[in-house]
Amino acid sequence: MSELTVYLESDARRPELRTTDPVLIAGHLVHSGILYERWAADTPLPASTDGGDVLRVYAGPIARLKEARGFRAVDVVRITPRTENVATLRAKFLDEHIHDEDEARFFVEGAAAFYIHLEGRVFRVVCEAGDLLSIPAGTPHWFDMGASPRFTAIRFFGRPDGWVASPTGDTIAARFPTFDPDRMETA
Ligand SMILES: [Fe+2]
């Protein structure tokens, strides 16, 4: 289930807030300039589906977000435990970093967690199918797909190299719970 947990940056043990209500999630995040929306993601996708199928199914909302936010391109990323170099892929975004452009993802299947660090707090957003999250350019954050990842997401880009991450050098990510979909209640 999609979930927002808000922590003080100094205390990863006792969250200030935890909610699975999409309206509350969006309301808390919009104050910090983060876009969260629920899109209908109820079209079953066959296991062998390719990125083109995913983009066709969601053509309407994709076009709307591109127009509203100035994104020029999209692609589809699908990660499973059998994806090549999955541990390396996970590690790539586990440390706090920023991007030159907004990082927007729409989850079609599976789940993963974004941790957004701003205003003295960490906003942990577990995204599942139907969740659109857009983190503004320059906002420190990290991303955990979990040790046994499984998700499909549409990525939005303003530039082909927009996804390139610049590390902040802050080690805060190591102090916060990693993403483990089987142990959500202990996170
Ligand atoms: Fe990122």
TrEMBL record:
Q: Where is this site: May play a role in transmitting local conformational changes?
A: D102
Q: Which SUPFAM superfamilies match?
A: RmlC-like cupins (SSF51182)
Which Gene3D superfamilies does UniProt cross-reference here? Jelly Rolls
> Known InterPro entries for this protein?
ARD, ARD_bac, RmlC-like_jellyroll, RmlC_Cupin_sf
Cofactor(s) for this protein? Fe(2+); Ni(2+)
Q: Where does the sequence pass through the membrane? A: none
- Could you say which residues are annotated as the site Important to generate the dianion? R105
Q: How is its cofactor bound, per UniProt?
A: Binds 1 Fe(2+) cation per monomer.
Coiled-coil zones: none
Q: What's the top EC group for this one?
A: oxidoreductase
Keywords attached to this entry: Amino-acid biosynthesis, Dioxygenase, Iron, Metal-binding, Methionine biosynthesis, Nickel, Oxidoreductase
The pathway entry for this protein reads as: Amino-acid biosynthesis; L-methionine biosynthesis via salvage pathway; L-methionine from S-methyl-5-thio-alpha-D-ribose 1-phosphate: step 5/6
Amino acids binding Ni(2+): H97, H99, E103, H141
Identify its protein family.
Answer: Belongs to the acireductone dioxygenase (ARD) family.
Subunit arrangement? Answer: Monomer.
Alphabetical list of HAMAP family matching this protein: Salvage_MtnD
Instruction: State the protein's name.
Output: Acireductone dioxygenase
The opening ranks of the lineage are: Bacteria, Pseudomonadati, Pseudomonadota, Alphaproteobacteria, Rhodospirillales
